[in-house]
Structure formats: structure tokens, C-alpha cells
Amino acid sequence: MLRTGQETAGASSRTMDFNPVTLRFTGKDKALESLFLDEYFEKSLSQARGSLYLILFYYLFFGLLDSRLLADSTVNAVFTIRFLIVGPIITLALFLTYAKFFKLVMQPVLAAVMFITGAGIVMVLIIAPPPLNFAYYVGLILVFIHAYTFTKIRFIWASLAGWGLVILYEIVTVWVIYTPAAILIGNNFLLICASVVGMLTCYSMEYFERKSFWLNHQLLTEHEKVNQANQELEQEVARRTQEITRANQDLSLKIEQNLRIMEKLKESRDFAESLIKSLQDGLAVFSPEGRHLEVNPAFCHMTGFSREEILDMSPPHAYWAPEDKAMLTRAFANSSAVSRPSGMETALVRRDGTRIQILISLSPIRHEGEDLTGYVVTFKDINARKMAEQALAHSEARYRAILASMEELYFELDLFGRFIFVNDAVMRFTGYSREELLDLEKGWYNLTMEGDRMFGAFSTIYASGQTAVLEDFPVLARGGAEKFAQISAYLMRDKEGNPMGFKGLGRDITESMAVAREKKLLESQLRQSQKMEAVGTLAGGIAHDFNNILSAIMAYTEAMLMEPDDRTKNVTRLENVKKASLRARELIRQILTFSRNTEHKKTPVSLPFITREALKLLRASLPSTIKIQYRAEENMGRVMADPTQIHQVLMNLCGNAEHAMRKNGGVLDVSLDTVFLPPGEAAPHVNLSPGRYIRLSVADTGQGMSPDVKKRIFDPYYTTKEKGEGTGLGLAVVHGIVEAGQGAVTVESEVGRGACFRVYLPETLEKEEIQESAAGDVAGDETILLVDDESDLLDSYTALFRHYGYHVSAHQCSSQAFARFMSGPEQFDLVVTDQTMPELTGLELAAKIMKVRPGLPVILCTGYSSDAGDEQSFEKAGIRKMIMKPFAFDEFMKDVRKILDEEKAAPAKKFKKPSSSSGRQGARVAGSKDPWPS
């Protein structure tokens, strides 16, 4: 029964909430509406689709009957309505039932089909002639019956479509066509009754559909609740069962534990009694008044009294030393007051009157942490330890005496780097007394120029706990003498293993270092003498090339003097003179590079470039009967080497090849390639490690070598040349250079079949430093201080600088140049100076200038190759760039412009007046950081 939109579900108090007009779920059941519509659609789709098929069939079938009953004049109109309008619309609705979105439009589409079908019948009623048309209302009744009951249109949509048709029928029968009153009343009555009955039927059908859905949902909900309640009940039963089981287990366990505890208490009591009796140290239990309650056998043995005698004693006890009784009384009182153990050393008087040294430990006993119930005192015989301490003191004294007499350096440092002990050898080595060394704030750090290196070594010792060795460690002794030591140090630890300092041993290697430096100097002189030998071999060819260059310069100069007014020709001649000068400069540069008596640091270098340079220098000295062949792989890697030494290796190998082919001529074949030596193949190549190598091969077609010569080919001073043609050092130098570069050199040769030397150098992944040349406009308006003792060079440089717009203050005398600088230090933007000059050298002048203007850029020019080899020293002195003479002025101006532009981009630097005297720097480098903790 419907009441206020609620329906009771059986005996339950739960009711179905719905709208009695639209039948939609409301209230607590509002969420069920979408679920119901989904289910209603799934259940109704097949029936709705079949209903549409049936409607289409009926509608078209009745159209055929109309064609039989109606006159020919009206048949076409009726045919159009039924077959061309209403029929296609029903067909379209039928197709829509197969669309995915039909679920969203099902009800409005079915309601529209109902209305359009009935409207088509009303239109036929208008067209058909009376009295035949009066009977067409029956078709509307059929539409109502079919739509309300079979098509599965929901109540609200079916009602809207049905009453729309009733209204349309009333309009047509009352106002459009004439209908007799009796027929009008009867037809309307039947039509309205059919619509009302259809509405009630549709309402009931949808209501019971919703009711069934709601009851099923309630049933599922209650079923889920029952299942959940069952699960919770089962879980609760299981939990309670587990708790009961656990409680039983805990009870059994506690009973077992109590039994074990009682047994252990008995065992502990027995063990304590046996332990007290077996203690090597004496033990006594005192009452708060100081009487003995219990003593162990060890205490009886220690004192010489029996247990009964000791228990009968009254304080003060006979075994206490008389002089310590007052101290012991205070110790008992203090221990009771502070409630913690206390210990002390004292003497114990045995029954026979002898004394022993003991260490007592006194602990108060309190009942439940409050009331004092007595004292426990342990007595430890320390006679043996005291004797051992005395022996250790004597041993320590002997140990110190041995350390003092050692020739090796021995020292100890704390964790802050301070000396805590040094032996006499350290004092002799440094020249300082022991007190002076111990007063140093940072120990060795105050005596060396390499404090950071030393700090790093001791930091490694501290972090790793391993011994570290400082090789060639420099030390500034008293008076500024530089000495060297080899120091080995390790970490000292305390008894708990915590770091407490450092110990070290060392030896004075000052003399051996001097010998090593002398040896290195001799080796350098040896290589240089061999270079000079090679230069002498090349001298003839070099002189020939240089004479050709000078001849060209002289010829062009004389031609210009003869035709001074011919500007066009003279410009061309001057360009040719410049080209010849550049060729001469390049030839001199190659000679100086090869013969330089300095060694650069090893850098990543390209062997093809150096090889081509060496072959250019060599080509002029070779006879025309010797042909040079050169091959190199593209995009070759680089090696870590000194370019000058690689140049020397090439010149020596090629020079030997030329000597072997001097009589009969031949082919000098030079090639470069990359090889990979896997582990299985690396060993035969003179102990090379596996990896990638750049291989330089120098082969000749000369007379070759015998096996005996091959065995000695790398021995110093061994030569097969005639007297005066060589020293026999060339290949020995090659061998030394290559091995120092972690490489190897091999030789293959047979008598009459030439020789092939192969040099293997390990490839490096480091990139070669590429210096970018300056570009763009080189003009400027800055002020330059120019210094050169050669007047011709000074005048030409001044003119060229001024040509580019620069202001120049030119000076031949370096002292005058410095005086001019001091008259206005802030005026100058750049200093360009020669190196070799009277009075002040360029380096000395730069040093004085930079004391006044720190950071002022200085360019140093030199014509000496020895200066070129000292670039690192010049960089340390603050020289911005060093340029070898002669140089192309356009390239030089690019460097000038680049330096000035960099200086403009840098922050401005203030100049300062030079002080009259400089402070003593001492042993430490000024500005260096102190790494030791304060």
C-alpha cells in the first residue's frame, strides 16, 4: 500500500523511500536510482527492441488495410503518413537501440515513438472521409495498450506521451473535423478510459519493478551484514580462544620460571659462597659500626689471622696501618654519605708485623636503597704491581737513553701536531734545542715549506691507522739551511684504542738528495750534449736553408732601394721579405725547441704534429739520395710527454737511419699508428702493461745490424760510427726517455736488410690544452710602458703601437723606465719589457712594478731559448705572457688586446706605495692556510 512515498519491507521497520508521482527513489534510497535505471535498461532493452519491431509490423500492416478501405484520392496521403513518415521514424528508433548511447535516450526515444505513432493515426483520421474516420480512435487505443504495457516505457514518460495524444485527438475532433456529438462523447470516453487504465497499469508495473529491485538490494545488504557479523563473531571466538590459550601458556611459563628462579637462587647462593671463598683478593663484609660480619679465606691468608680472630676484632682493627686509621675512618664515612664505591691505596700490617701495599675498594650496602646495612670491602695485594712500576720506570729511563743515542730521528707528536718528545738526532738535524722544539706551536709544520703535504700525510695516518712515509721531506734548520729527511710515522693509541698522538722515525737524506740532484744534472747535461751532437749533424742543411732565406731578403731590399718610388712593387717586395722572415723565425724556433736545455712538465701531446716538425728540420740536412716517407692515422690519440724530449727521440732515430743510408741512399720510413696490446700479447713487448699505445716506427733501408750489435745498441757510449761522428749516446738517451714515459722501444734488423725501431708510448685520455688566439680589432687607446735596450726595436715597436692608437712611454734604460712608472703608477695599463737588459732585467723590473701595482699585466719578450724554458718561473712571478723573439707584430697585437680586455673585465686593483723593508717570512709561506686544529 502506498503511503507518503514509503513502503515497508516485510516485518522490518525499513521502508522504501520514493516519489509517488515519478516513482524515483528519494531520501535514504536516492543512491539506488542510478543502479535501478542501469538494471531496468539491461532488462528492458530486448523487450523494447521487440516491441518496436512489432509496432513497425502493425503500423505497416494497417496501412495495407487502409489502401483497401479508403478511396483512391486519400490513399496516397495515408500511404505517405504511414510509410514515408511514421515508418522510417520507427525504423530509426529501432536502429538507435543498437547504439552505445541508447541507454541515455531510451525513455525519451520510446515516448517519442509512442506519440508519433498515435499522431500518425490522428492525421489519417483527418484525411479519411466520414463516417469511416470516426473508427480510427480504436487505433489510438491499440497504441495505448501496446505502449503502456509492452514497450517498457517508464510511467512518467508514457503518461506524457499518452495524454499528449489524448489532447491532440480532442483538438482534431472538436476544431479540425466535424464529429457528431454522440460519437465524440463515446470515443473520448473510451479513449480517456484506455489512457487512464494504461497509466495505472504502467504505474503498477514500474512500481513493482522498483519494489522488487529494492527488496533484492535490502536482501543483499542484510546478507552482507549477516556475513560480516559471522566473520566478526568467528574472529572474536578465535581471539578469545587465543587469549585463553596464551594465558594458560603464560601461567605454565611463570610456574616454570619461578621454579627455575628458585633453583637459580639456590645455585647463585652456592656459587656466591664458593666464589667468595675462591677469590684471590681479600673480601670482608662490615656492619655499619665497622665490625666484621664475614671474611673470605684469601683475606685471612693476607692478614695472617684466622676467621674467628677477625670476626672477634673490634674497630679499629689490628691489621690497619696506624698512620692510615684516621684516613680509613673518613673513607667509610664518605662512602656512606655519597652512596658510591670509593678506593684508595694503603698499607696492611700482617699478624707477623710485615707490611704489604694493598688497594681497597669500599662499597656501602643499603636495604632497598635507603637504610645502610653495612659495607663490602675488597683488598687487593699490589706489592707485585708496585715493584713492576718501579721496574717500568727504570726501563723507560733506559729506553729514553737508547732513543737519545740513536742516529735516526725519533719524535712523538700529540694530535695537534706539537712535539711531545724528540731525541738528540732531531735536535742535531734541526739545530734547535729540545726546549725550542717542544715550544713550537705546530711541530714539523713550523719547520717546513710543505706543511700542507705533511698535514695530508698525518691526516691519512689518523684516518686509516696505517703507517705513512714522507719521502724527500724538506726542513728549514736553524740559520735557514734546507735539509731533507725521509720520515715514517704511525698512530699512537691509548689502552682503550683511542688515538692519542703520532710516533715517527726518520733519517737525514740531505747528502743523498744532493747526490741525486747532481746525478739528474749530469743526465740533463748528457742529453743536452747529445742534442748538440744532433744539431751539429743538421748544421749544414740548416745553414743552406738560412742562406737561401737571407739571399731572398737581401735581393728584395736592394730592389726596393733601386726603385724607392714604385709603391706597388715595393709593397709586394715587403710582403715577400716578411714571408722570408717568418720562414727564418720558424727555422730558428725549431732549432731552439730541439736544443733547449730545459725540460717541460709532461702534457698531453699529439705525436703527428711533433713528427712533422722534426721532419721539417731534418729534411734540409738529408742528402738527395734519401727519400722520406711519412704516414699517420687520422684522429690519433695523445700521449703524456715532454714535447722537447719526443722531438729528441725522433731526431736521434732519424739521424741514425740517415747515417745507415748515407753511402747508398734509400728510404726513411716514419709512421704512426695506434695498437692495442691485450694481456696475452703485452708481456713480450718489453714488460708493457696491457692497453692502447701510440706506436712510432722509424725504418731505413740501410746496411742493418748484426745480432751482437743489436744486443748492445742501447748501451751508453757504444757506437758503430767512425771516430768523430758520434758519441754513442743517442739510442741510450732514446731508451731512457721512452722508459721514463712508461713506454718501450724495440728494434728489428738484419745485416743487409735495414733496421726498424718501434717506440710504444701509452695513450692518454687527457685532452691537449688548446690556446685560443685573440681575434677582432686590436686598436686601443690605453697607455703602455715599453722597455727595450735595443734602440731599433724600441723605435719600431713604438711606431707600431702608436699606429694602432696606443699611448706609449718608451725607454731604453730599465731604471729610467721604473722611475717614469713611479711618477704616476696609476697611468699605465700594460708593461711590455725585454728580459735581458743592463741594470734591471725584465723580471726584476716586473717584480718592482708589481710591488706598487699588484696585478698590473706584464708581457716579457726574450730572444733566449733558455728563458723560454722557464715559463713556470715567470708565471709564478706574475708575468702575464712571455713571447719569443722574433715575433709577428699582428699576432703580438692580438695578445696585447686580449690581455687588456681581460684586465678591463677584472675587478679594479688598488696600487700601494713600496715599503722600505720587507718583513721576515720565516719558514712558512705567506698566506698559506694552517691545517692543524686550534
Automatic annotation (TrEMBL):
This is histidine kinase. Residues 342-394, 469-521 form the PAC domain. Keywords: ATP-binding, Coiled coil, Kinase, Membrane, Nucleotide-binding, Phosphoprotein, Transferase, Transmembrane, Transmembrane helix, Two-component regulatory system. Residues 783-900 form the Response regulatory domain. Its EC number is 2.7.13.3. Residues 268-341, 395-439 form the PAS domain. The modification 4-aspartylphosphate is found at D834. It comes from the Bacteria. The chain crosses the membrane at residues 52-71, 77-97, 109-128, 134-150, 157-178, 184-203. Residues 541-765 form the Histidine kinase domain. GO terms for molecular function: ATP binding; phosphorelay sensor kinase activity. SMART domains: HATPase_c, HisKA, PAC, PAS, REC. It catalyses: ATP + protein L-histidine = ADP + protein N-phospho-L-histidine. It comes from Desulfatibacillum aliphaticivorans. InterPro entries: CheY-like_superfamily, HATPase_C_sf, HATPase_dom, His_kinase_dom, HisK_dim/P_dom, HisK_dim/P_sf, PAC, PAS. Residues 906-934 are annotated as: Disordered. One of its GO terms (biological process) is regulation of DNA-templated transcription. Residues 216-282 form a coiled coil.
